C-alpha cells in the first residue's frame, strides 16, 4: 500500500541522519556515481602513504573502505554524532579521530602529512592544507561542485542566482594555487538524482543541513505537500549533482 503524505513525513523525520552513509535512501532516491571511483583511488593512495589526514571524515564510512592505512593515520570531524560514529568505526582500524571545528588552524604541526584527503568537505581551508602537507605531499579529494542539487534547493528557497557559482572547480583550483599548491589533475561530472518520495526529501534536508538552512517539516509542510503531489502526478523529482575530483601537490622543497 502506498504510504500517505503524513506517513512519509514521519518516516523521513524519524530516520537516523548521523554519519555519511546514505543507504537509508535505497528505494527512495538514487544518484549516479562519478566515473573515477574515488574510494578505490583513495585506498590505493593510503596504501602508499606514510602519514595521512582525512579532513571532515563524516562517520568515517568512505575512509574505512580502504584495506590498509599508513602507520600514522588521522581523521577530523566536527559534528558530535559523526565524531562518535567515526570513532567507533575507525579506532579499531588504528585511525585516530580528532574532534575539530573545521575552522583554521588544523590541530597539527607543519608538514605533518604526506597525504591529505577529503570527500565532500563543507569548507576548504587551502592555506591549512598546504601548511600540514610535507613538500611533495598530495591533497586528493572529491568535492561537491557548483549548483549541486539546486533543483531541489530552489524548490524550497526560490532562485539562488548568486549561489550558483560557489564551489566552481576553476575557482577552487585558483584558490589552491594561491595557497602554494600545484594542480596535478581536475575532473568534473554532472550526475542525475531521482527522488521518489518526500520521506527522502525530509531525510536529505535534515542530513545535508546547508541545502535549506533552518529546514523543518513544520515550517516547510506546504512545499513538501506540493512536492508530494508533483511526484504523485509526474513521477520522480529530478535533480542533478556536480562533483569534481582534484589532485594538488605541495611543490618539493
TrEMBL record:
This is Class I SAM-dependent methyltransferase. Coiled coil: none annotated. It comes from the Bacteria. Signal peptide: none annotated. One of its GO terms (molecular function) is methyltransferase activity. Pfam families: Methyltransf_11. The lineage of its organism: Bacteria, Bacillati, Actinomycetota, Actinomycetes, Micrococcales. It comes from Microbacterium aquimaris. Residues 53-140 form the Methyltransferase type domain. Keywords: Methyltransferase, Transferase.
Amino acid at each position: 500500500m502506498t504510504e500517505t503524505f503524513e506517513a512519509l513525513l514521519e518516516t523521513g523525520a524519524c530516520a537516523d541522519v548521523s554519519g555519511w552513509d546514505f543507504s537509508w535512501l535505497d528505494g527512495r532516491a538514487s544518484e549516479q556515481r562519478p566515473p573515477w571511483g574515488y574510494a578505490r583511488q583513495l585506498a590505493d593512495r593510503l596504501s602508499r602513504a606514510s602519514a595521512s589526514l582525512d579532513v571532515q571524515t563524516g562517520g568515517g564510512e568512505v575512509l574505512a573502505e580502504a584495506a590498509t592505512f599508513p602507520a600514522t593515520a588521522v581523521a577530523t570531524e566536527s559534528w558530535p554524532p559523526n565524531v562518535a560514529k567515526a570513532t567507533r568505526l575507525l579506532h579499531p582500524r588504528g585511525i585516530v579521530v580528532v574532534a575539530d571545528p573545521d575552522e583554521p588552524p588544523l590541530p597539527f604541526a607543519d608538514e605533518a602529512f604526506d597525504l591529505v584527503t577529503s570527500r565532500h568537505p563543507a569548507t576548504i581551508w587551502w592555506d591549512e592544507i598546504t601548511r600540514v602537507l610535507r613538500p611533495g605531499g598530495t591533497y586528493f579529494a572529491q568535492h561537491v561542485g557548483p549548483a549541486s542539487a539546486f533543483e531541489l534547493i530552489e524548490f524550497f528557497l526560490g532562485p539562488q542566482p548568486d549561489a550558483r557559482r560557489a564551489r566552481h572547480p576553476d575557482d577552487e583550483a585558483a584558490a589552491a594555487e594561491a595557497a602554494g599548491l600545484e594542480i596535478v589533475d581536475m575532473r568534473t561530472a554532472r550526475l542525475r538524482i531521482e527522488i521518489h518520495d518526500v520521506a527522502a526529501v525530509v531525510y536529505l534536508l535534515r542530513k545535508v543541513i546547508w541545502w535549506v538552512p533552518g529546514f523543518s517539516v513544520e515550517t516547510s509542510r506546504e512545499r513538501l505537500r506540493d512536492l508530494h503531489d508533483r511526484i504523485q502526478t509526474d513521477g520522480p523529482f529530478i535533480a542533478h549533482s556536480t562533483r569534481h575530483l582534484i589532485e594538488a601537490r605541495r611543490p618539493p622543497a
